[in-house]
Design a protein that fits this description.
The chain contains 11 helices and 8 strands. By secondary structure, the protein is α+β, with helices and mostly antiparallel strands. Strands 7-6-1-8 form a 4-stranded antiparallel β-sheet, covered by helices on one side. Strands 2-5 form a two-stranded antiparallel ribbon. A hairpin with a 2-residue loop joins strand 3 and strand 4. Helix 3 packs parallel to helix 6.
């Protein structure tokens, strides 16, 4: 019994299974139709395929090691960040002014309305320009580090979600059954497919996953650090400028190398080892499968032939150009690598309302809105065309 299934749940499932089997046996053994139907399927052309697929997920070591090696560096640069000097100008009342220089005098000469009295060489202004120099964390280098921490956390979080969503190992079982047979004067056909995928191991048992959890925790703590809070959302936009301060500082240079690495890394961060086996189900299960399918066939045959006498509404019709011939499966299907891809973006095709077939008619209000939008778009296109023609004329002149 798998570890994640409790004994109580297993006992309940066994009770339900026994009751279900008792019910199906009682029905199929009580009517001769089911016995004849099962014998028809057994003597017909039937194929049954039971495949078991085991998928083991291995986290790639390269990107984990690249991030781990830079975590001490990020701790150093966030604790010993650079401080710049920010200069700002502010016109203040003369009694509060403390930061006056040559620019203050030039500014006063251009704004004589600030002068309240003039007595020979003595000038008394009411206001004067103050040039204030203050220390600030909002340097380009600090913004770069702040941006790296945020992008690095997003990089790790996406891969953590993809890896932790399932265990490090999972097993899937797929059953496909198809049978063609004669039942009375009719030719019957049954196609049945069912599958289940079950995680076999918890991701926490994997050593690489423990490293990933630690990295995620460290980055989460960095996001809550005083450095990030004091930066107040100060970020840089890629591409990052390789300033002298960055390239001459060995710690910032390592941060730059990590930035380049995560920007160029496009993989999901783990690889899959897939093992697939073809197995033979037990005779008892095959007997139960035939009994269950005989119930389904009886319900289908009754509703189609006797109950509905043909379904009342035809929702679609199609004729094939060539006859279809099914294949007999004798080999395991090759595992497709794109089956396990993780997509981070969803694309949707937007279709104009007027192109949709079979949709309800637009109301009068909706028609007015659509016409207004189309009129506005037409007018904008005319304006754009006129501007383009004028620009071409000016270039020719």
């Amino acid at each position: 019994m798998p570890e994640h299934i409790s004994e109580e749940y297993a006992r309940e499932m066994e009770r339900i299974y026994n009751d279900t089997s008792y019910f199906i046996d009682g029905i199929t053994e009580g009517y001769g139709f089911y016995g004849d139907f099962i014998r028809s399927m057994q003597t017909g052309n039937a194929s049954l395929k039971l495949n078991r697929r085991t998928v083991h997920k291995r986290i790639e070591e390269q990107w984990l090691s690249a991030i781990e090696s830079c975590l001490p560096v990020l701790d150093i640069v966030t604790r010993n960040y650079t401080v710049g000097i920010e200069e700002r100008e502010e016109v203040m009342p003369i009694e509060f002014s403390r930061n006056i220089n040559n620019r203050s005098i030039r500014h006063l000469s251009q704004h004589t309305d600030y002068i309240t009295s003039f007595d020979g060489e003595n000038i008394t202004p009411s206001k004067i320009l103050n040039v204030i120099n203050e220390e600030t964390m909002q340097t380009y280098e600090n913004k770069f580090v702040n941006t790296l921490i945020q992008r690095l956390f997003d990089f790790v979080e996406r891969r953590y979600s993809a890896i932790a969503g399932r265990g490090t190992e999972e097993t899937g079982v797929q059953l496909d059954f198809e049978s063609k047979f004669l039942i009375g004067s009719s030719e019957g056909r049954i196609s049945f497919s069912i599958g289940v995928t079950d995680p076999e191991a918890n991701a926490e048992s994997d050593g690489s996953f423990a490293r990933l959890v630690r990295i995620r925790k460290v980055l989460a703590n960095l996001l809550q650090s005083s450095f990030v809070k004091n930066m107040q959302g100060g970020f840089v936009r890629p591409p990052v400028m390789r300033t002298n301060a960055i390239m001459k500082n060995k710690y910032l240079r390592q941060c730059m190398d990590l930035w380049d690495y995560i920007e160029s890394y496009e993989k999901v961060g783990y690889v899959l080892d897939v093992e697939e086996k073809a197995e033979k189900p037990g005779d008892e299960y095959i007997k139960e499968l035939y009994s269950l399918l005989s119930l389904q066939y009886m319900i289908f045959d009754y509703n189609v032939r006797r109950g509905f006498n043909g379904f009342p509404d035809v929702v679609a019709a199609r004729d094939t150009d060539e006859p279809l011939t099914p294949n007999i499966v004798t080999k395991l299907k090759k595992v497709q690598t794109d089956e396990y891809n993780v997509y981070d973006t969803e694309y949707r095709r937007v279709v104009n309302v007027s192109q949709l077939s079979g949709q309800r008619r637009l109301s009068e209000g909706e028609l007015q809105v659509r016409n207004a939008v189309e009129t506005a778009l037409t007018a904008q296109r005319k304006i754009d065309n006129m501007r383009s023609r004028e620009q071409r004329k000016r270039k020719k002149q």
